[in-house]
Amino acid sequence: MRIVSAIALVLFTGSLFVPSAADKSYRAKEQELSVLKGYLATARDSLQNEIAQRWRQKQRFVEQREADKEELDRLREKQERSFNELSRIKEETFAKQRQLEDERRNLATKRDEWKFLSATIGDVLEKEADNIMETFPLDREDRRADLEEIRRERKSHGSPSKTIGGLIGYYEKYLERGQRIDITKKSVLPEEGDAVLLSLARFGNVFAYGMNEQSEIYYLRQTGNLGSERYALPKVGESPLRDHLMTKIPQWVESQKVTGQVKTDVMQNAQAAVLISGKKISTMTRMTQFVKNGGPVMIPLLLLPVWALVLVVLKYFQFHEKDKRNKKLSESVVQMLENGEIEKARNEVSGRRGVVARVIQTLLDHSKWSRQVAEKKIRELLVEEVPQLNKHLTTIAVIAAVAPLLGLLGTVSGMIELFKVITHYGTGDPKIMAGGISQALITTQTGLSIAIPTLLLHNALRNRTNRIMSDMEKQAIRILNRLWREE
């Protein structure tokens, strides 16, 4: 723009100083100037339009930038919200996963508890089935039937809770039955003979009196032993108790309740049973009962003294025979050697058996050799004889050591049985606990009773062996001294 203005100014200024003759040229210049001005105006308009257009474009760009900025901010805000939502969803997912894992663990725990409860109930049922023989005899068949019913229901529904309810009802039923007095009629199996139908007066789970159609009185009582011998049903013999019950039981059956005085044996032990039955216990019965009370350990314990006694008798005859033959033969040979009768001594021991005969025979055979050679040969013979003399002595010592150990085993078994009884029946009945204590004490007593005399006999036999060995050595030396006097 400035250049165009300068050109126009120069042309205009020059035209002022051009003479009039150059009007045409001046006009031409003016026309050119006009054209240039037109061009200039056109260029200026075009430039203005361009500037305006550029300005408008700039404005649109600024507006677009502001709009893009706002859109970017909006998108950023939306992205931020999306990130927050995604984080929230992730946290919720993790929380759900943790909750799911917890539920799985709880489910596994519940499943294990279910299995444990089911297994425990199975064990309780098995234990109850095994212990039916230890329950009151009048309830055994009913208990067995009820227990089988509970088992069938357990197999059908498989629910431990329902089975527990059935077991609770089962225990309540027989607990209540064991706490009351009933009058009933039932077939039972006595200690001797076949089953009999008795009119029974049952006093809980403690004892019962029964009478058959022949007016024979039976007494269902505890024995103090576990297993099948927990209860006994002996017949009541001639006694005041029998007369008393023969009068009372018909009255109880008629009135269906127990009235008046009830005579009973509080301790319910074997001695009282003897008084009730009117029988005496023989020595064999006492010994048999003693062995039964001791338990299964009594069988090897009773075999040990028999074994030890056999070995002691064998050793006694062995030593007695050796002493007898050794003493006579040795004195005879020494006397012959004193008289110089070597050939007669050789004939004396010829065909004889025993270590002394062999010692003398060996010495006589080596009498032509030196004394050292004969002594070596004698030592060989004595060394061979030592195992024969010590034979079975170690076995006797082992028997003496094993007997108290077996007694200790019986003691431990008895205490285990005692704790089983305490677990099952509690500590309210000392008679039941006495069975395990009796087994423990009996086996200990038996083991010590066997071990002490066996140990003393072993010591005596060992001393006898040492004395025989010493006597043989002395006799050998006496004969050596008679054969080699010059040495």
What does this structure look like?
This protein is mainly alpha-helical and 487 residues long. Helix content is 74%, strand content 6%. It is built from 13 helices and 5 strands. Strands 1-2-3-4-5 form a 5-stranded antiparallel sheet, with helices on one face. β4 and β5 form a beta hairpin. The longest helix has 108 residues. The N and C termini lie far apart (168 Å). The model has no long low-confidence stretch (mean pLDDT 77).
Write the layout of secondary structure elements.
Blueprint: H1 2-16, H2 23-130, H3 140-157, H4 160-177, E1 181-188, E2 196-203, E3 207-211, E4 217-222, E5 231-232, H5 240-255, H6 270-277, H7 283-294, H8 298-338, H9 342-349, H10 355-365, H11 371-390, H12 393-425, H13 430-483
Antiparallel strand pairs: 1-2, 2-3, 3-4, 4-5
Q: Terminal Cα separation, in Å?
A: 168 Å
Please tell me the overall pLDDT: 77
The helix/strand series, from N terminus to C terminus, equals HHHHEEEEEHHHHHHHHH
Task: Note the quaternary state here.
Answer: single chain
Beta strand count: 5
Class derived from helix and strand content: mainly alpha
* Global outline: elongated
Helix content: over 70%
Number of helices: 13
Strand order of the largest sheet: 1-2-3-4-5
* Major sheet characteristics: 5 strands, antiparallel
Rg calculated over all Cα atoms = 61 Å
Unreliable stretches: none
Beta-strand percent range: 5-15%
Condensed summary:
The protein is mainly alpha-helical. It contains 13 helices and 5 strands.
Characteristic key phrases:
single chain, 13 helices, 487 residues, mainly alpha, five-stranded antiparallel beta sheet, elongated
